[in-house]
Structure formats: C-alpha cells, structure tokens
Write a structure and sequence with these properties.
single chain; mainly alpha; elongated; 112 residues; 57% helix; 5 helices
C-alpha cells in the first residue's frame, strides 16, 4: 500500500454522504410515528402511568399486527370506525410496519 502524505490531502474534499446518520425521510417518519403514539395514548389510555400505557399500547399493537393488520394492510383508508382504537392502530402500522418497543413508546410519551 502506498503511503499518503499530508500534502496529498490538502485539496481533498470531505465525504458528505451522511454515513452514520439517519436520512431526513426517516426522521420525519419517526416524528410522525411518535406524534401518533402520543395522540393514541392520550385518547385511549389516559390516566395511567407511562409504563402501563406503553405496555398496554404495545400489547394491543402486537395483537392487531398478528391478526387484522394482515388482512387490512393493503387498504388505502382505515377499514375501521374513525373513533376506534383499531383505526389508530392501523394508522400507526401504516406509518411503519413495525411495533415499537415499550422503551420507545415511553420515550415518546415522556417527550410530549
């Protein structure tokens, strides 16, 4: 391997391909997911601690993902009543088809 001198690197431009950083699209998606998590928790699980809310919300998301979500994921609009918990769960999974951990949900609730 050829040795590189400092003089050879004086005109070099730094790499700006954002390695190790999340893309702006990913950051927007995570912000949207966190806002929806907070809105769902406030509406359907009010009056509980963040820990209990995160536990119940995650368990409901897991149940919904393994059941109804498989049949309704291709829909363009929520196939449930707009005021139901299932519609909120559908919207959460529509943002990203992944159930966040309890720690992630608690963190989103704490920052709201």
């Amino acid at each position: 391997m050829k040795a590189v001198r400092c003089a050879d690197l004086t005109g070099a431009t730094p790499i700006s391909d954002r390695r190790g950083h999340r893309s702006p699209n990913t950051l927007l998606m995570l912000d949207e997911r966190d806002a929806k998590l907070v809105a769902t928790a406030r509406r359907f699980f009010s009056g509980m601690s963040h820990r209990e809310t995160a536990h119940r919300l995650r368990s409901r998301l897991l149940i919904y993902q393994s059941g109804r979500w498989r049949r309704t994921s291709a829909e363009l609009r929520p196939p449930h009543d707009a005021d139901s918990l299932d519609a909120a769960l559908w919207c959460l999974l529509r943002i990203k088809d992944h159930v966040p951990s309890e720690m992630t949900i608690r963190r989103a609730l704490a920052y709201s």
